[in-house]
Amino acid sequence: MTAHAMISAAVSGWLTAESRLSLMRARAEIGRRLARRGHELLYFHRVDDPYCQLMVQALPDLQARFDVTIRPRVVERLPANMYPDPQRYEAYSILDATRLARLYGLGFPSSAMVPDRLAVGMANRYLASLENDSSFFAVAEEVGAALWRQDMAEVRKLCVVADMGDERLAQNEKLLRTLGHYASGTVYYAGEFYPGLDRLDHLERRLNRLGAGDSEVHFELTRLWRYRLETMEKSVSGKAVDFYFSVRSPYSYLGLNLAAELAARSGIRLRLRPVLPMLMRGMKVPAAKGRYILFDAAREARVEAIPFGRIVDPLGEATRRAMALGFAAAEEGQELAFFQAFTRGVWAEGIDGTSEKGIARILENAGLDRRLAARAKGPATAWEERAEKNRQDMLMAGSWGVPTFRVGATTLWGQDRLWAVIDALKQV
After folding, report:
1. Same domain for 217 and 230?
2. What is the model's pTM?
3. For the segment 95-125, what is each residue's pLDDT rounded down to a tens digit?
4. Which site from 28, 42, 196, 273 is most exposed, i.e. has the minimal number of CB atoms within 10 Å?
5. In terms of domains, do 278 and 413 share one?
6. What is the rounded distance in angstroms from the CA atom of residue 386 to the CA atom of residue 404?
7. Do 419 and 391 belong to one domain?
8. DSSP state of 428
């Protein structure tokens, strides 16, 4: 291993360590107590974000159960460079919010479409004028419901003329950027972000540890997919799930582990569809997004008991070697074992995927013959074509990036969508 790889693994291990997080939280709590402040949460709302429509229904429950004050802040313009394919993301998020609403018993119209832009502007400005009003969440839910069902007359009726220009929205957007995030539907508390319903369980656990809650966790339904396996029919066994992933994506690493567990426990056929990372396709990941992804992947890994943190970035040559080896292993039906070993190596064990010793160790961990490395040293054209086909298939399915699951005609994005994968399997 090179000195650079050793330093990278050591630094990333420190940055993602639970002990470091605990120390940061302890410092924040000491500062809060010394200043005699209560537990104050900031929530960033945007009316045309479907996940926000769910959040304004969920946060009052959180506020009632915990000793917290939630201060809403309305935003409208988000950094365009944070979303590699805004149109696909927008269309997908509406479908995903519909599924989440059913899971949590929240209101969201199944026929929702992208809202009218003029109505969105009106609603954002009206709600911005209510940020300090105790009725904010109730009004936001009502306005949002009218907006998502395309009831423009009701939106105009509800949104009285507000003495609020763009300055307040711009201030809120600047605050979101300054704090270090980029998305709406996000809660901020003492140095950490909790985007959407999917991450509120982290906040619940944190507040419970501080003695500020009811010791319960309500927002973890997306994590309880293993219980759904108990009611799955045996006919699910043998059904196929396509998994599009990148070896350079930490969420793909987590998703690969979870998908492998699902396959082992249910008997489904997991078909791996590796694609090249964004950065190797000429796309960029902004620094703020990269920092959040690393932190979020670490806490998700801790909840799922998946090793994570000693990272040697596989961008470039390591990814190319992994793709060649992975496609070679597929010829023997061993691609899952290889990709699990490779991603665990570079995301959790500090293995340098560019070195011969690193590759040999990964193959050994996968239980594969080292001679596979020699077989994978041929021209890259074949695996590049297959990887590109996988990417094109993923785009055609309606997803813009990894990790993505495909079950029949259903496309699901994110390593935390195993519950929806199981639902889709029951329908095909």
Report:
1. no
2. 0.95
3. 999 999 999 999 999 999 999 999 999 999 9
4. 28
5. yes
6. 17
7. yes
8. -
